[in-house]
Every structure is written in C-alpha cells, then in structure tokens.
Amino acid sequence: MNTTFLQACKGEPVQHTPIWIMRQAGRYLPEYHKVRSKGTFLELCKTPELAAEVSIQPVDILGVDAAILFSDILVPLEAMGLPLEFHEKHGPLFPEPVRDRAAVDRLIIPDPETDLKFVMDTIRILRRELADKVPLIGFSGAPFTLATYVIEGGSSKSYFQTKKMMYAAPELYRALLDKITECTILYLKAQAAAGAQALQIFDSWAGVLEPCDFAEFALPYVKRIVAALQGCGVPIIYFANNGATLLDLAKTSGADVLGIDWRIPLRDAVAKVGQGVSLQGNLDPCALLLPPDKLEKRVAGILAEGRAARGHIFNLGHGILPETPPEKAKLLVELVHRLSQK
Ligand code: CP3
Predict the structure, then answer these.
(1) Which of 68, 76, 269, 319 is 20 to 30 Å from 140 at the Cα level?
(2) Contact (CB, 8 A) for 237 and 280
(3) Residue 319 beta carbon below 6 angstroms from any ligand 1 atom
C-alpha cells in the first residue's frame, strides 16, 4: 500500500510528500458528470456503488495518495430529521431551519448503521475496491459549521441567525450543538469501524468567528469529538477554513493534523503550531490556473516550507473549483511527487 498519507499524518518520514485534493471527486471531472447525470446529487450519495465509483475516479485519473469518501457534510443532518434539498443554483437548503427549543427537541440522534447505512456501505465497497492501493479518508462537518446550515436554512453571508442564537439564546445554541456533536461522534466512529483509515472534520465557516467566540462556541465541540475518537486508532484531521487567526486555538483541538488555507504562509503556520501536529495544505485553488512554470515555483515553495512541519500533506487550501481543467489537477499531483521525491 502507498502509506505516505498515513505516515505524514503521524509525522513519520516519507518517500515523497503525499497529496490529495479537497473535493477531488467532483464537478471538474467529466467522468464525475457522467455518473452524476444519472440522478440528483443526494441520490448519488445514497447509491453506494456509484458513490464508490466517483470516490475512486481521482485515484485512477490523478494518482492522488488518498481517496475520500463521496458524500456531503450535510447528509447526517437529514438523518437527524431535517429535510435537505440541493439546488443547482442556490446550493444546499434546509426548508425547516432550527431556531427554537421545539425544533432542537425534535432532532433525533441517528443510528449510523441503519439510518446512514448507505455511507457505511460506500466505505466497505471502497475498501474492497481500493484493495489497499491508497488509504480511505472518512469525514464529517464540524458542529459549528453544521449548525450554521441548519440555523440559517442554507448558506449565508453574515451568519446573522447563527450569531444571534449564540449571543441571545446561548442555552438553545448549546443544546443544538450538543445534539449535533453526539450525532457526529457516533457517525465518525461508525465510519472508522466500517473501514475509514483517517477522518477529516471540516469546519468550513469557522473563519467567520472572532477568536473568543471560536474558543467558546466552536472549538469545545471539536475537542469533544476528537477525544471521543481516540480509541478508533485512525488519524484525525481538523480543517478550520480561513483559520489563520485561530491556529493558536486550533492546535489545542487534539487532532493529529491541521488543515491550512492559503491566507497564511505555511512557514508561519508551522511557527504557530510547532511540532505537536502535522499540517495539510495550502495552495490557493485558483493558483492551478498559473502558467506551469509559476505553478511549479509555488508548489516547490510550499513543499520547502512544509519540510519544517512535523509532517506535511499537500492539498489545496479549500476545495478544487468546478471550473478547473482536470489536466491542471493532474499536473499538480505530478509536481508534488516529483519535487518531493527522496
Ligand atoms: O472532497 C470530496 O471529493 C468528497 C466529497 C465532498 C462533497 N462535499 C461533495 C459535494 C465533501 C468532503 C464535501 C464537504 C462539504 N459539503 C463541505 C466542506 C468542505 C468545504 O467545501 O468547505 C461543505 C461546506 C459542504 C456543503 C455543500 N455541499 C455545499 C455548500 C454545496 C453546494 C455548493 C457546491 O460546491 O456545489 C454542496 C454540494 C456538493 N458536495 C457537490 C459535491 C460534489 C456538488 C453537487 C453536484 O454534483 O451538483
């Protein structure tokens, strides 16, 4: 097996710097569109054979060093009892947002092996089909990020409703976050039991919080999840997007790896977190559109800075954009492998 990804998570020496790409299974690949055209996005997530097929596409096409489960962070919220829709233009929608005690009380804690069986089946198929070629990453959203979707009813610009609940009804906010956290712990434990070999927690909107609010209203739930997963024996990656100002706090999460976005030089991130964790990142997704020689320089720079970290996994600083030409993603993987080869 190509174990470079798992070794880098633990800070062990590697033959080359491993790379995978956030959203590597997705709309920039014509092969993805072909499978996706058979139904809706949620139908694809709920059909394990097809979900596994699109998870494997980037492993075969790009040669990345890890596969990631094909699903969405919002899928377990639907299993908690909240109707979920994905619209081509508007993205995800929760038509019944959670804003009062009755709505929080109605939320159920799903049993992952029954209510989210399609996810566990996808993981089992993936482990069989990957045949130990590369490790498989499972994932969830972080409680704060998940809460923003259910409180706002979808994506948001100002996160007004979320912050209003945090500030004006903190007990309600805490009750909601407690339930999402409990669900997430069971969900991630089940993913590890089904065969996920690493787990990433996506905190996509953590960067909208003042550090003191991150410390009070977001990080404690992440810590609870990481602590609960200690017995699973798989590395945990915590990615707080747009989180340069939160790194001092994020490094106390207990995660083995911290995801870093491009707004901070990797060297500065290493200086902030020290040698207690590995780092994952951090090329701007748009930098894939640089001319090849400039892209190479930038990749070499990130690799050089990453050498100072306990371990480094190359990735973009956020998901690859649907407009990206697939050849650019392929070139990136080649560059990282060639430039970091021992
Ligand atoms: O990384 C991978 O390849 C695995 C699959 C994956 C998806 N979503 C598939 C997806 C993962 C890990 C996610 C996580 C996710 N989902 C996050 C965290 C990462 C991040 O980007 O910050 C978030 C915030 C979501 C919520 C979400 N899902 C939004 C806001 C949208 C609509 C906007 C968009 O990017 O399309 C989605 C839809 C979604 N999730 C698609 C895919 C491939 C597009 C669906 C389609 O085919 O139409």
Answers:
(1) 269
(2) yes
(3) yes
Cα–Cα distance, 291 to 328 (Å, whole number): 10
Q: What angle do CA 111, 112, 114 make, to 5 degrees?
A: 70
Q: What is the DSSP letter of 245?
A: G
Q: Other C-beta atoms within 10 Å of 95: how many?
A: 10
- What is 142-183 written as a DSSP string? -HHHHHHHHHHTB--SS-HHHHHHHHH-HHHHHHHHHHHHHH
Would residue 121 show up in a list of annotated catalytic residues for this protein?
Answer: no
Residue with CA at minimum distance from ligand 1 atom 21: 319
* Bridge partners, 203 (sequence order): 240
Q: What CA dihedral angle connects 6, 12, 18 and 23, to 10 degrees?
A: 40
Looking at residue 185, what is its pLDDT?
A: 98
pLDDT, tens digit, 9 for 90 and up, residues 205-248: 999 999 999 999 999 999 999 999 999 999 999 999 999 999 99
Mean pLDDT, residues 55-68: 98
27 Cα–ligand 1 center, Å: 10
Taking the whole predicted model, whether its pTM rises above 0.85 is answered as yes
149 is catalytic: yes
Is the Cβ–Cβ distance between 77 and 34 less than 8 Å? no
**In which band, very low, low, confident or very high, does the pLDDT at 1 lie, cut at 50, 70 and 90?**
confident
In the chain, the domains with their CATH numbers are 4-340 (3.20.20.210)
